[in-house]
Design goal:
By secondary structure, the protein is an alpha+beta fold. The chain is 31% helix and 31% strand.
Length: 848
């Protein structure tokens, strides 16, 4: 019996192994056919595997660059659109600032003309301004209409609440001017004349129509548009927010920022209770007025009355009142009367904390005025200071501050600042904000605080301390010691009752300086003015330090040197024919010598420190010193010390010397070098129009340290090997700062006719710079866009090269692979058949 070959187990196993090999070969061929690659394993490529690995890595890296570029491309396209719009705004506004569209806004002006004859008693002058009635009833002592006009002007200007108009007396005219541009007020005027009296009138005429700037809406609208553009988002990120850009819109409401040319808010500080023995004394300044015939004023000081009767000049009133009270035993050692000059005198308490009272009454329509220079500050067991903040609310970013020096807790001044959010319900919210910050200060202050309401912040301590308050950074000037400026003597010589005689002789002899006599012999046709003119030529030719001229037909004598008096006699020394009268002499202006005490001005610098580029200026009689901050100044005292040193080092020397004030005061005390020389002192602070990194701009929401500097940062993107670009922009970019500042200054200008031209010139210059800067930003963004597009193309090209190179290494001919697959499948089917037959064998198959 023969045995079938399949009965060999070894052969069976061999066939089974061939099946597995065919199956593996078929799988590999199928994978090649599907992937187009020889193998998915680099091992199978031998020496080409490393090259293939490098080509794949290169393609992956470049695709990553492309993905990053595509992600940033949306931002770049958005910047292109925004910069296009901002450039148009800048261009349009620059044109508007220089075209007729920017015509100066004007304030309404009404002129009220008074006419008729004064002297009646009971005439009623009525003036209605926006429904508020002002009246004046004559008392018969008025010497002219200017007194009636002055009285009504004073009523208007002192009205509470303040009206939208200011009043100015100008002889027989009352000039009303609106406080803002445009039509501001309505005026009606009338006179009710007393029966049987003169017929008087007052007529109102609109002399200047109020006009609002035609670009006011354009400026406000563009501020809003710029804010919207700077707050745009892409994919949840604020385009102009720096790297702190996902939580908040970076730019606040630009229409609610503080006026960059000067705050409309104000701050002041006063000590209301001082520690014994005290240093602060009460002081009042009396500004006197001319008194006409039949007019009188009664002054009362601590219950002591003194009456002066007209006609008197303001200088004579001041001299008589000060002389009387200065010699009054009841006031000796209680009140000093000083600084007597052509305009008034000063009353000063002798003892700190001891008050005096003063008042005046009279029938002068424009009376003398008593003004408080320093209120009395009573003594107490605690020092009490009150800082008062006033002004409108709703502004964003206004800085209210208080500076406190309270040793031993703080031997150097510490400034506490509250920055408004615009959501404050009232000025007391500002006070509460300051109190909270004072309470949180470390080490703690020794002063206790209280909100008294109406913007008043009270500070109390049992030991002495110093406070100053401010809105933004300010510099104020206060004259603490007046100097008496010399006044030139003026006398008037008259020659009355000329009888037309030939040969009358008038003689003038000067006794100081000693010179003369000067004589004039009359002709029958001489007038009073003719005689005065004859004296003029003689006296002026003598050059004696007195200048002669003719005034109102009389001889006016005036000292050439203020403070140097002259004396003389004038007489009719020969009288022929009809009897004539002796000359009359009247002192129009008495000589006032220069005061021995020089003027002292106190400049106080207030506000937060730490800013870079703030310029502090002090000008004394036209000479200016300035200091520019670098941000390292610890307090205002440091700035004051620098300015004082500059004043003292000036070459040629200035008309004053300077000393820094007490520690913590931020003061420069300026004293004239010569008594009798008036000082004109001015001080100001100019903030930079462009803020440098990392400080926050006042319109950026990112104000905190560590956040404001990140708001400046520009995001970077790597678009190729060793090629990284800044592709985002910050709202703090100098060009954007200038654009916003220009619009803000213009916003201030269109409501301020008085300084309109100056502000608009500044706004125009800034907008020109902004336009150039925006074009540069736009160009930079365009370069980024072009560079990103070109780089993307380069990456795509290189990826294609890498793919082609990879294909040459690992690619297969799919037709060839398909044929191999077909052959492998045929062989595999044959094996399947044989193996299947073997699987069906039984014992009977082995029997023949």
């Amino acid at each position: 019996m023969a045995i079938n070959a399949f009965s060999s187990y070894a052969v069976y196993l061999s066939n089974l192994n061939g099946f597995k090999n065919l199956q593996g070969s078929l799988n590999e061929l199928t994978q090649q056919l599907a992937s187009g690659k020889k193998s998915l394993s680099l091992v199978n490529y031998g020496s080409d595997g490393q090259s293939l690995l490098g080509l794949r890595a290169e393609a992956t890296k470049r695709q990553s660059y492309i993905d990053s570029i595509n992600a940033a491309s949306t931002d770049v396209k958005s910047y292109d659109s925004i910069f296009t719009q901002m450039e148009k705004i800048a261009s349009d506004m620059f044109q508007a600032f220089t075209s007729p569209d920017s015509d100066v806004p004007t304030k309404q002006v009404n002129t009220i003309q008074f006419s008729g004859d004064v002297g009646d008693t009971g005439d009623i002058y009525k003036l209605s301004v926006d429904g508020t009635l002002f009246t004046y009833v004559t008392n018969g002592t008025e010497g002219s209409f200017d007194e009636i006009v002055g009285n009504i002007a004073n009523q208007i200007n002192s009205h509470v609440p303040a009206l939208k108009v200011t009043a100015k007396a100008n002889g027989e005219q009352l000039i009303l001017t609106g406080t803002l541009p445009g039509p501001q007020f309505q005026v009606t005027a009338s006179v009710t004349n007393v029966s049987g009296g003169e017929d008087n009138t007052m007529v109102s005429t609109l002399t200047t129509a109020g006009k609002i700037s035609p670009i006011i809406a354009q400026v406000g609208g563009n501020l809003t548009t710029v804010q919207t553009l700077l707050n745009q988002q892409v994919n949840g990120r604020y385009l102009f927010g720096g790297v702190s850009s996902s939580a908040q819109a970076p730019v606040v409401d630009l229409t609610r920022l503080p006026d960059p040319t000067g705050s409309k808010n104000a701050a002041s500080t006063a000590t209301t209770t001082q520690l014994a023995p005290g240093t602060i004394v009460q002081q009042m300044r009396v500004t006197t007025d001319d008194l006409g015939a039949l007019q009188s004023e009664t002054f009362t000081v601590n219950g002591n009355n003194f009456t002066v009767n007209g006609p008197l000049t303001a200088q004579e009133v001041a001299n008589q009142v000060a002389t009387y009270y200065g010699g009054l035993p009841a006031l000796t050692g209680v009140v000093n009367f000083t600084d007597v000059d052509a305009t008034g005198f000063t009353m000063t308490a002798v003892t700190p904390g001891t008050a005096f009272t003063s008042s005046l009454t009279g029938n002068d329509p424009t009376p003398s005025v008593i003004a408080t220079v320093q209120a009395n500050v009573p003594l107490g067991g605690n020092q009490v200071d009150v800082a008062t903040y006033t002004g409108p609310i709703g502004t964003i970013g206004e800085e209210f501050s208080i500076t406190i020096t309270d040793p031993p807790s703080h031997t150097s001044p510490v400034t506490i600042t509250y920055r408004t959010t615009g959501n404050e319900a009232g000025i007391d919210d500002v006070v509460n904000g300051l109190i909270a910050k004072i309470a949180a200060e470390q080490p703690p202050f020794s002063v206790t605080t209280a909100n008294l309401g109406n913007g008043k912040l009270q500070l109390t301590n049992a030991t002495a301390f110093t406070t100053t308050s401010a809105v933004e950074n300010t510099a104020t000037v206060k004259t603490t010691q007046r100097t008496v400026v010399p006044v030139a003597q003026q006398d008037l010589v008259g020659f009355p009752s000329l009888q037309g005689d030939n040969g009358d002789i008038y003689t003038i002899n000067f006794t100081a300086p000693v010179v003369g006599p000067f004589t004039v012999t009359t002709n029958s046709y001489d007038t009073e003015s003719d005689i005065a003119a004859k004296f003029v030529s003689q006296i002026n030719a003598a050059a004696i330090g007195v200048t002669a001229s003719v005034k109102d037909g009389k001889l006016l004598l005036k000292s050439d040197t203020p403070g140097t008096a002259f004396t003389y006699t004038a007489a009719l020394t020969t009288d022929v024919g009809q009897p004539s009268l002796n000359p009359t002499t009247t002192t129009l202006v008495a000589n006032i010598p220069a005061g021995a005490t020089p003027q002292t001005d106190q400049v106080t610098l207030s506000g937060p420190v730490g800013r870079v580029g703030d310029v502090y200026e002090i000008t004394v009689n036209g000479r200016t010193v300035r200091y520019t901050t670098d941000g390292t100044e610890p307090d205002m005292d440091a700035i004051a010390i620098n300015l004082a040193a500059q004043i003292n080092a000036a070459n040629p020397p200035m008309a004053a010397t300077a000393l820094p004030g007490p520690v913590g005061s931020g003061q420069v005390v300026i004293t004239g070098t010569t008594g009798g020389v008036a000082l004109t002192t001015e001080a100001k602070v100019a903030r930079p129009q462009v803020i440098g990194e990392p400080k926050p701009t006042d319109y950026n929401v990112h104000q905190a340290v560590g956040d404001s500097d990140r708001a400046w940062d520009r995001s970077q993107i790597t678009i190729a090997d060793q090629l990284t670009i800044d592709y985002t922009f910050s709202a703090n970019a100098p060009a954007i700062q200038k654009m916003i500042m220009s619009l803000r200054i213009a916003q201030s200008a269109v409501t301020d006719p008085d300084t309109y031209q100056t502000k608009m010139t500044q706004a125009q210059s800034l907008m020109k710079d902004a336009l150039n800067g925006l074009r540069a930003l736009h160009s930079s963004n365009t370069v980024n866009d072009t560079l990103m597009s070109a780089t993307t193309l380069a990456h795509q090209t290189q990826i294609s090269v890498s793919v082609d190179s990879s294909d040459k290494i690992e690619g297969v001919d799919k037709n060839e692979v398909a044929a191999k697959v077909q052959a492998a499948q045929t062989q595999l089917e044959a094996v399947f058949s044989v193996v299947g037959t073997t699987g069906r064998l039984s014992l009977v198959n082995f029997l023949t």
